[in-house]
């Protein structure tokens, strides 16, 4: 699909009855200040991304870069903010829908829509002007590309994901608890990872698996890994998705974005949200001094002196795997997390449908 790019400033906003509303930000400025100078990129405009966009328009963020290669389908309509049945009929891009949502809420926001993939080097470079990047993407490869952007240009990067699916059966079911035995068992939750300039990157936080990045970038390798018994998440595989979970995760992301701009609480590094028990767990980690993505041989802080990432393989061909047959990720070691009771972020074994 060709990349369709809208001009950053767009058409002049309508005036008259819907003209400038001087005090529209009064209630939030009292707590968080103004955001008119801020430019935020939202990459991935599905269930979570569209919620984030809607909130940022209400907040009065000055500039929005909206990135997604996809068009609206009928199954998106249960969660895609601003999408209408007519958008399905005319195969509207998600970028078009998100930009329309922003303009409807707040014509003063400068919006630029890019209907392309963050894995396209041309698109990747167009995201550079954003001071904050919200990544609401499926899969490991887009997370790798966004992490590279954040590390190379010292940007704040918030990675979000939602997980929803059947929960494993308890080993010892309680036969006396009729209510529990009739309940639908679901794993429902998500995560928020916050990458700040100078801090641990998404790979330090085990937020993606380099070997699965390779598998996603190389369709032939992905097929070979499936044939060999590896689980390779397929972003095209339909996964359950529901609007309230997206709202929860998007809410945490927007709250932390405000926290980055105007510190109002201890910063979050990695937040696990479990909607099945109404609980959250905050995790922390240090930078990995040998991290492949932000360590000594990385493009950390090089800005334009290093180019866009090559979408060729990022690691050597996979050879080692553990006894269970799962690929080993040298950066996936939950023991590095400082919260002792939690397993740490999970890679490659859950749907991340955003
Ligand atoms: Zn790192």
UniProtKB/TrEMBL annotation:
Q: Is Nucleotidyltransferase given among the entry's keywords?
A: yes
* Metal-binding in keyword set: no
UniProtKB keywords = Nucleotidyltransferase, Transferase
Q: What residue stretches are annotated with the THIF-type NAD/FAD binding fold domain?
A: 34-291
Gene Ontology terms, MF aspect = nucleotidyltransferase activity
Locate the compositionally biased regions of type Polar residues.
Answer: 331-341
Which top-rank group of organisms is this from?
Bacteria
Where is there biased composition of kind Low complexity? 316-330
Q: Where is this region: Disordered?
A: 1-22, 286-354
- Please give the coiled-coil regions recorded for this protein: none
Gene3D superfamilies per the UniProt record, alphabetical = NAD(P)-binding Rossmann-like Domain
Q: Name one Pfam family in it.
A: ThiF
Instruction: Indicate what this protein is called per its UniProt record.
Output: ThiF family adenylyltransferase
């Amino acid at each position: 699909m060709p990349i369709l790019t809208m001009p950053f400033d767009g058409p002049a906003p309508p005036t008259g009855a819907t003209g400038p509303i001087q005090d529209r930000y009064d209630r939030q400025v009292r707590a968080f200040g103004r955001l008119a100078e801020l430019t935020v990129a939202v990459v991935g405009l599905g269930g979570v991304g569209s919620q984030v966009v809607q909130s940022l328009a209400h907040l009065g963020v000055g500039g929005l870069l909206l990135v997604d290669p996809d068009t609206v389908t009928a199954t998106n309509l249960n969660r895609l903010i601003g999408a209408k049945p007519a958008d399905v009929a005319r195969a509207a891009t998600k970028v078009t829908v998100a930009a329309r949502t922003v303009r409807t809420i707040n014509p003063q926001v400068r919006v630029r829509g890019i209907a392309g993939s963050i894995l396209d080097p041309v698109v990747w470079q167009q995201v550079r002007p954003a001071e904050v990047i919200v990544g609401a993407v499926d899969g490991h490869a887009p997370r790798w590309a966004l992490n590279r952007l954040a590390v190379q240009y010292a940007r704040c990067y918030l990675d979000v994901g939602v997980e929803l699916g059947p929960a494993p059966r308890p080993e010892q079911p309680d036969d006396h608890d009729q209510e529990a035995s009739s309940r639908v068992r679901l794993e429902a939750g998500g995560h928020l990872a916050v990458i700040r300039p100078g801090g641990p990157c998404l790979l330090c936080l085990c937020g993606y698996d380099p070997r699965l990045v390779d598998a996603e970038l190389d369709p032939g390798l992905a097929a070979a890994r499936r044939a060999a018994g590896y689980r390779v998440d397929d972003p095209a595989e339909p996964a359950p998705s529901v609007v309230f979970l997206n709202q929860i995760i998007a809410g945490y992301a927007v709250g932390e974005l405000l926290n980055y701009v105007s510190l109002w609480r201890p910063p979050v590094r990695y937040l696990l949200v479990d909607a099945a028990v109404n609980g959250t767990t905050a995790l922390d980690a240090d930078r990995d001094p040998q991290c492949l993505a932000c360590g000594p041989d990385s493009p950390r802080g090089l800005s334009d002196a290093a180019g866009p990432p090559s979408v060729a393989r990022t690691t050597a061909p996979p050879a080692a795997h553990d006894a269970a047959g799962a690929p080993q990720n040298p950066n996936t070691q939950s023991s590095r997390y400082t919260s002792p009771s939690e397993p740490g972020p999970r890679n490659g074994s859950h749907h991340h449908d955003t």
